[in-house]
Amino acid sequence: MAGEPQADCLFCKIVSGEVPATVVRETETTVAFRDINPQAPTHVLVIPRSHYPDAGALATVEPGVAADVLREAAAVAVGDGTDGSGYRIVFNTGAGAGQTVFHAHAHVLGGRGFNWPPG
Question: Annotated catalytic residue: which of 43, 51, 103, 105?
Answer without folding.
Answer: 105
